[in-house]
Write a structure and sequence with these properties.
The structure holds two protein chains of two kinds. Chain A is of the alpha/beta class. Chain A contains eight helices and twelve strands. Chain A has helices at 13-25, 36-45, 61-72, 86-94, 107-118, 158-168, 177-184, 193-207, and strands at 5-9, 29-33, 50-54, 76-81, 99-102, 133-135, 138-141, 146-149, 152-155, 175-176, 217-220, 224-227. In chain A, the strands form three sheets. Chain A has a five-stranded parallel sheet with strand order 2-1-3-4-5, with helices on both faces. The model of chain A has no long low-confidence stretch (mean pLDDT 84). Chain B is α+β, with helices and mostly antiparallel strands. Chain B is 58% helix and 14% strand. In chain B, helix 4 (99-148) packs antiparallel against helix 5 (155-166), helix 7 (236-299) packs antiparallel against helix 8 and helix 9 crosses helix 10. The longest helix of chain B is centred in the middle third of the chain and has 64 residues, at 236-299. The model of chain B is unreliable at 1-9 (pLDDT under 50). The chains are: A alpha/beta, B alpha+beta.
Chain lengths: 231, 498
């Protein structure tokens, strides 16, 4: 049985060949696309578990492709790029990517990140821990990963859902950055504060009535994040 | 003071010409009085002396209105004398027998002079009002030209030209202190004006003399130049407005110029950045394939490699890393060395900067004991996190290369005089005193140089980045006792939290 279906999007044919060979040998089913346009077309026709997306491509480019993919889908996405700056990371995460890998990377590192993304939170939050939440016009439906705010419905990506549910089962408690990162992304993580910043912002946009003045997803400066449920 | 002397002939000839005109007009006025007199003398029997008097008065009023007081006053006196001589009994003499006629005569003269005076004053006022109006119109046109005109010429030259054309001045000179140059406009020359304008710019005030004025130009109390204009008779208020206008015009041009310069710098920086990104992409793309293959093969446990295969693949893998580092560092150096790169200054915990750099260098420090010492209560620092992490990473990298395998490396932050000191210490061979000054130079490799991992760029990059933060990087070392590389970061002002 396949470990998962991966779409490799890169304009360089050698990288597509290498990725295909390496990922296939580790049990993944791999397709490739030469451009963002082709990737969008493939995603429309077939279903995948994860997209490996090169940031620097001719045509519509990685960032824009990522944004368009996540417009209608919550597929896990890893962005590949040669630049290792925080600005690029934030840009990639903002566009909807779940993780970011700098070229050149080692195959074991990439595999670890793919596994971390495809792995669900374990133990998965049980129904006993987590009830569907309905407060002040906000509805969170855990089964379908849907949130609706005053009737406006949006779906959460897997990682967004993991971040939210980790905070939600521990209401009114500040969760440290490191704890949250390791719980959601895996033990290799811990310092990627920009990941949390971007994901919390993404959640606030979907969840908060006024994302600039969060009432539920609260930042405790320098310490961590907290899901605030009024008593 | 050669300019006013130079101005003398022009002004003198102008005055002479004016005087000639005045004499001519006075003569015409007197002739008109004579004409009226001769007409009435011919019909003396049939006209009443009051009619004659009123006719004189009308002529005098006309002269006063059209020409001025001098002409009408001369006409008044002449008319009074003619009136007395020809029409007051006894006629043919200047004696007046009847006291009533004497009163009439005095009244006539007083009326003529007063009317002359009043209408001349009215004429002067009208002229003055027209002059002010024209001044204002010219200033307005000038302000439009100064603020709207875009030329390739120096702005001061253009402004001087505009003033000369708007005020019909034969000679204008404008000294621009910023450019340290004097610009001339108009057909006439103002010799030696350059020195005078420089003096005027240094000593604020307005000096008028012989049709030319010299004035210093200020903006916000700063002298920015001086202006000389010949042949205009501006009121004080208009002159002040003109000077302010020129000041604003010069300053605007200067601001525009610095914006243009910044824009050009920004564009060239952007171009450089795009170019470097493209180069990085081109070099790293093949390396990505190589690295993915070598690491995959080396990690694959399902189908174990022979010892020889493993050792050969390890070489390929290390060389791919080396190549990637060379490309990264050459590009970092190119990006930083060109100057004018922009720091993204933000407030950070010193310990967070260290932690991120340590994470970045995790593959390098495998097998090393890494001690981190940073107190929690250290003040926050202002820095470009990405660049400072790069500095620390280069220092850790350097420590790994120049200390024996397995020896510990210390990384930390401590309070210092210049801010928070970040440091990386190793227990390696140390840096000889002769090398300490040159170790931060590009492509300089200390010691035996047998480390093929060293690119000779890491410490140069570190120094450039720390410089950009306004601080210095230094090394404290003794041969055989290890080295400590350290630099300070500025402390964030209180209350600048997220």
């Amino acid at each position: 049985m396949s470990e998962g279906r991966i779409l490799v999007v890169d304009d360089d044919p050698q990288i597509r060949r290498t990725m295909k060979a390496a990922l296939t040998s580790h049990g993944y089913e791999v397709s490739d696309a030469r451009s963002g346009e082709e990737a969008l077309e493939k995603l429309r026709l077939e279903s995948y578990d994860l997209v490996l997306l090169d940031m620097n491509m001719p045509g519509i480019g990685g960032i824009e492709t990522c944004r368009m993919i996540h417009d209608g889908s919550d597929i896990a996405t890893i962005m590949l790029t040669v630049r290792n700056s925080e600005r690029d990371k934030v840009e990639a995460l903002d566009a909807g990517a779940d993780d970011y890998v700098t070229k050149p990377f080692s195959t074991p590192e990439l595999l670890a990140r793919i596994r971390a993304l495809l792995r669900r939170l374990s133990p998965a939050p049980s129904d006993a821990d987590l009830q569907n939440l309905n407060l002040e016009g906000i509805k969170i439906d855990l089964a379908s990963r849907q949130v609706s705010v005053q009737g406006r419905v949006s779906r959460l990506t897997a990682k967004e859902f993991d971040v939210l549910s980790y905070l939600l089962v521990r209401p009114n408690r500040t969760i440290a950055h490191r704890e949250l990162l390791q719980a959601v992304w895996g033990p290799d993580y811990g310092d990627e504060l920009e990941y949390l910043r971007v994901f919390i912002n993404r959640l606030r946009k979907k969840l908060e009535p006024d994302p600039s003045k969060p009432r539920f997803l609260v930042t405790d400066a320098w310490a961590g994040y907290r899901f605030h449920i009024p008593h | 003071m050669s300019a006013p002397r130079m101005a003398n002939p022009t002004t003198a000839s102008l005055a002479r010409r004016n005087k000639g005109w005045l004499l001519l007009r006075t003569a015409v006025a007197l002739a008109a009085v004579g004409a009226i007199t001769s007409v009435f003398v011919a019909h003396r029997s049939s006209v009443n002396s009051a009619t004659v008097g009123f006719c004189y008065l009308i002529a005098i009023l006309i002269f006063a209105t059209v020409w001025g007081f001098t002409e009408s006053a001369a006409a008044s006196i002449a008319a009074m004398l003619c009136f007395n001589f020809y029409f007051m009994p006894p006629t043919g003499t200047f004696t007046v027998s009847d006291p009533q006629n004497l009163v009439a005569l005095v009244t006539f003269l007083a009326t003529a002079l007063t009317a002359s005076r009043l209408s001349a004053r009215l004429k002067y006022r009208t002229k003055e009002a027209l002059d002010r109006q024209r001044e204002i119109e010219r200033l307005y046109s000038l302000s439009r030209s100064i603020l709207l005109t875009v030329t390739a010429e120096p702005p001061a030259k253009e402004i001087a030209r505009q003033i000369a054309s708007m005020f019909d001045s034969p000679a204008v000179a404008l000294y621009d202190r910023g450019a340290d140059e004097t610009f001339l406009a108009g057909p006439e020359a103002l010799s030696g004006i350059d020195t005078q304008l420089r003096e005027t710019a240094a000593r604020p005030g307005v000096r008028r003399g012989d049709g030319t004025f010299l004035a210093s130009i200020h903006l916000g109390g700063e002298p920015i130049g001086a202006l000389a204009v010949r042949g205009t008779n501006l009121s004080d208020a208009a002159l002040q407005s003109l000077l302010n206008l020129v000041a604003v015009g010069l300053e605007r041009a200067r601001a525009q110029e610095s914006i243009n310069r910044a824009e050009i710098a920004r564009q060239s920086e952007e171009l450089k950045s795009t170019l470097l990104d493209a180069i990085a992409h081109e070099f790293k793309t093949p390396l990505t394939s190589v690295k993915a293959v070598t690491t995959d093969l080396l990690s694959d446990s399902a189908d174990p490699l022979t010892e020889q295969q493993r050792s050969l693949l390890t070489i390929a893998d290390e060389e791919a890393d080396r190549m990637a580092r060379l490309v990264s560092e050459a590009i970092q150096l190119a990006r930083i060395e060109g100057g004018e790169f922009q720091l993204r200054r933000e407030v950070h915990f010193p310990s967070a900067l260290l932690a991120a750099a340590i994470r970045q260098t995790k593959p390098l420090t495998a097998g090393r004991e890494l001690t981190v010492q940073a107190a929690d209560d250290l003040p926050l620092v202002v820095a470009d996190a990405g660049l400072i992490q790069m500095v620390i990473a280069h220092l850790i990298d350097n420590a790994v290369k120049y200390s024996p395998p397995g020896s510990p490396i210390g990384v930390g932050a401590r309070p210092g005089e210049e801010g928070v000191i970040l440091y990386v210490a190793d227990q390696g061979t140390g840096v000889a005193e002769t090398d300490q000054a040159r170790i931060f130079d590009k492509f300089y490799r200390a010691g035996k140089g047998d480390s093929f991992h060293e690119t000779g760029m890491g410490l140069a990059i570190a120094r450039e980045i720390v410089h950009a933060h306004g601080k210095e990087i230094a090394v404290r070392s003794a041969p055989g006792k290890g080295s400590e590389f350290y630099f300070a970061l500025p402390i964030a002002p209180a209350g600048s939290m997220e």
